[in-house]
Fold:
Amino acid sequence: MVFRILMRYLANNEQLINRMAESYPMRRAAQIVVSLMYRAKDLAHETKLHEMSPDRFKSFMNLFKDNVKKELEGVKDEIKKKKF
Structure:
């Protein structure tokens, strides 16, 4: 109950939302999402995703998931290097 009230207050606090939106982690997360979206779109065009069978699509999605994990690990390492 208290948690819900606190979350509602924080979600409706315009100053907090603006400060969070201008923070580096939020901007970086947005950049990563957009980058992944464009990479996925280009990859879908290259592999002609709409012409795939269900089994091939599953293998493609597993490969994509692995690539996303590797990219996120790389970003984590990059952030750790910048901190030290």
